[in-house]
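Researcher: Good morning. I'm working through a list of sequences from a screen, and I'd like to move beyond sequence-only analysis. For each chain I'm collecting a predicted structure so we can compare shapes side by side. This is the next one on the list. No need for commentary yet; just the structure.
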Amino acid sequence: MFKLGIYTLAGALTLGLIVLSGGAAALTPASIAVPAPAGPKVNIDNFTFTPATLTVGVGTTVTWTNRDDIPHTVMATDRSFKSKVMDTDGVFAFTFTKPGTYGYFCSLHPHMVGTVVVKGA
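Model: Good morning. C-alpha cells for this chain:
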C-alpha cells in the first residue's frame, strides 16, 4: 500500500511537471537531442577508415565514429592528435589548424591507416 502511494505521488508530480512544461514531449529523453558534430566524418567499420583519404581546409573539424563491434583508436603518425579508446559508437573529433598531410592509424590495430590532407586558406 505504501509503494502504491509513492507511485501515485510520483505520477502526480510527473503530471504536474508535464502540465507546467507544456506537454509530455518536453520531458521525454528522445526529445533531448544531442547535436551531431558538423563537418567531414570518417567511419571506422570492418577494420577500415572510410573514407581512407579525406581532403579538408584549414580550420576544419573532422569527426571519427567507431561503427565496429570492437574498440579502436585514431592516432596521428606524427603524434599531433590521439583519441582515447573508442567503443562502438564512440566519437573523436580533431580540428586541423595547419596545412599538411596527416597520416593516422589505429594504435590497437596498426594495419588500419588513413590520411587527412589539409589545404591552406
